[in-house]
Design brief:
mainly alpha, 2 helices, single chain, elongated
Length: about 90
């Protein structure tokens, strides 16, 4: 069994999350630029995503998939509308 001190990540495999998952040399710069342009891609809750949800509902209504009067809150069970994060 190897000692923890010999492992390059100190034995904590969770600490290697900064390892590149792609071969893009400027991945961090692309991610920063994208974030500045588009905002938080993983925003939680209805309010931060309201414009997107309203657009999806509008497109759905135009194509006959849902009613026009649908609200973003109608898409989720009441118990899931909190901003709880895991």
């Amino acid at each position: 069994m190897r000692s923890r001190r010999h492992e390059p990540w100190g034995g904590d495999r969770c600490s290697i999350i900064s390892t590149a998952r792609t071969s893009l040399a400027w991945e961090a710069e692309y991610a920063t630029e994208e974030s500045e342009l588009l905002g938080d891609a993983f925003a939680y809750g209805i309010e931060p995503n309201r414009p997107t949800l309203e657009t999806i509902i509008r497109y759905g209504a135009e194509q006959g998939f849902c009613d026009k009067g649908l609200l973003p809150e109608d898409l989720f069970f009441e118990t899931t509308r909190t901003r709880a994060r895991i």
